[in-house]
Amino acid sequence: MPHCGGAGVTLVVLLLNAVTNIILVAAAERKQVFDLGGLMGCLPGKWARLLRWAFDVSIWLSVGLALLGYFVVVADAFSPLADFVGFPSTINKQVSVLLGTLLVIPLSLMDPEYLAFSSTLSVAANVYLVLLITFLFVSQSEATSHQPFCWLGAGPGVITMGSALMQSMIFQMCTIPMYEVLEDRSVRRFSVCLVVSFCFVFLLFTTLCLMALRLYGDGVSSNILNNLPPDVSGDVARVGVGLAVIAVYPIYLESMVAPLRHAEERAWRHRQPLMIPSPQDSLIFDEDVIPRGTSSDLDAGPSRSTLSWMSDRLLKVRVKVFQLHGILPMRPSHFAAVAIILGSAAGGCVVTHLGFCNIVNGASQVAAMVGWAPGFAGLFLLGWEQRWWQFLMILLIIFATMMSMVGMMYRDNFVSSLNCMWESS
Q1: Cα 111 to chain centroid, rounded
Q2: Which residues cross the membrane (predicted)?
């Protein structure tokens, strides 16, 4: 991918994701519903419940594939630790995945508001990776200076890069649960945080892209950790990125279990068994039964952190699954979280090609997360009825759907099809 073209694609992808995330947060704040499936359930008409289930399924599929990719990264990242301990190379990957699983499970059962350190760890690991690539770039600049480098070009690989970037930048399914626990939350405060972080991401991605392509050319791996030198500096970068992925893992996992957790909270507040599937009127049940602003602890139920760290009364959870009653020894959302972690860990032991996984997942997410969810929210949940706004939302839905279809067709880098218009040596 030419560097200028790659920077342009990165900028467009970031702008699309920034705008659509702000739309979803504004709709969530207006409706006071803090999971994507539940927000889609607020859409008017008889299709709301169907859309809610459709987006819940879409989130589970797309995030599940992303979490699988995380364990592929963990398997590569923790391989130096397995080598250091002395495990045979034949089971190196399995040991790395097991270590990652043992770290992820307790983090994922913590309340999201206690995971603020994950952002710091992720930033630190990525900054170190960029610094290492910068050092290698500077130290090997003489060896690579004679090699031709394409600064600007065109080809179908642009579409593939867009899909891969979408996979790394789409977090609409996580945005609303994260916004729910934002301190002094407001749409304006969230927007400022988002713009600042996306500016940093743009500089990070474009700088890393330039130096990696200059260093490794067409031989750059879909997981750049595999291109790092097999010494202490490379091993530190691998382990650091692995820890960063583990720290971010619970944030993505929360988007999958948030609807179930919210259903548990409703059931607790109304002293009712957890119903799966949830009743059709679950979104308005709280407003009809419990007045807003009540100060009664009995009516309001326990705080979120109290609910996350279960009291004795919550150790036995009453559930009703398709008219069948039962009692579970743990919260269903905790059980679901552990099951998802074990499933993605098992997949991480089998899948080896991270690039294909990212491209397919990114292309499949564009339509639902960048188009349909913010498009429908902008049309029906924000209360903006201007024709120009409705036209833009319809255009967003159509554009994202087309990009998703095209992205599923173009899944290779198409290096041989690149038409370079600006090359330097």
Answers
A1: 17
A2: 6-29, 50-71, 91-109, 121-139, 151-171, 192-216, 236-253, 335-356, 362-384, 391-410
Give the Cα-Cα-Cα angle 145, 149, 154 (nearest 5 degrees): 175
H or E element, residue 328 = strand 324-328
The fold of 3-261+338-424 is: Amino acid/polyamine transporter I (1.20.1740)
At 72-99, the pLDDT tens digits run 888 888 888 777 777 776 677 888 889 9
pLDDT confidence tier of residue 151, bands split at 50, 70 and 90 = low
What are the structure tokens assigned to 208, written together?
């890393």
DSSP designation for 219: G
313 three-class SS: helix
Cα distance between residue 89 and residue 93, in whole Å: 8
Question: Which residue from 380, 399, 355 is spatially nearest to 15, judged by alpha carbons?
Answer: 399
C-alpha span between 284 and 280 (Å, rounded): 9
Distance (Å, rounded) from C-alpha 212 to C-alpha 139? 13
Query: Please, how many CA atoms are within 13 Å of residue 182, restricted to the half-sphere of its CB?
Result: 21
Q: Which residue has the higher pLDDT, 412 or 331?
A: 331
pLDDT digits (tens, 9 = 90+) for 264-310: 877 777 777 776 666 554 444 444 433 333 333 333 444 444 444 33
List the one residue out of 336, 332, 330 whose CA is nearest residue 310: 330
Nearest residue to 59 via CA among 347, 336, 405: 336
Give the relative orientation of helices 92-108 and 332-350 as an angle to the nearest 10 degrees: 160
- Cα 238–240–246 angle (5° rounding)? 105
Tokens (6 digits) for 102: 């043992």
**Helix orientation angle between 157-169 and 354-365, rounded to the nearest 10 degrees:** 80
Per-residue pLDDT averaged across 16-37, rounded? 92
DSSP for 231-295, please give it.
Answer: SHHHHHHHHHHHHHHHHHHHHHHHHHHHHHHHHHHHHHHTT-PEEESPPTTHHHHHHHHS-TT--
Q: Please report which confidence band the pLDDT of residue 413 belongs to, taking 50, 70 and 90 as the band edges.
A: low
Note the Cα 284 to chain centre separation in Å.
28
* 330 exposure class (CB count in 10 Å sphere: 0-12, 13-18, 19+): middle
Place of tokens 């992720």: 122
* 176/178 Cα distance (integer angstroms): 5
Task: Write the DSSP string, 189-200.
Answer: HHHHHHHHHHHH
Q: How far is CA 117 from the centre of its chain?
A: 17
Q: Where are the domains of the chain?
A: 3-261+338-424
